Amino acid sequence: MPVPTSDGSPVVEKVVTPTPAAKTPAAQAAPVSTEPSYFSAADVATQNQYTDCWIIVNGSVFDMTGFDSIHPGGREAILKLCGKDGTRKFMGEDEHAERNAWQEIQQFKVGLLRG
Hints:
Layout: E1 38-39, H1 41-45, E2 48-49, E3 52-57, E4 60-63, H2 75-79, H3 87-91, H4 94-99, H5 101-105, E5 109-113
Parallel strand pairs: 1-5
Antiparallel strand pairs: 2-3, 3-4, 4-5
């Protein structure tokens, strides 16, 4: 309960709202690199199993691990391209163009082909 002042009026309690602490440089998030990762065909060739499946399409490298189980064309369509350049197969199929598959696989892109 507030104590009255010498003139008899009650003391008004001031509510102080703490302000958020300013972020120090150490507390700020590290910048995300916008530089693409580059991989050689030999790098991709080592990722050649269904548990670790990378493919090359149009000079980009995609990690398709696990996508084989949901690929509309079936598991084998992806598995036979693991560790390889699948550009001709991917770009040569009308089904990919009809479904806009190029846009769909962008979420799996891990980098670019070097060299």
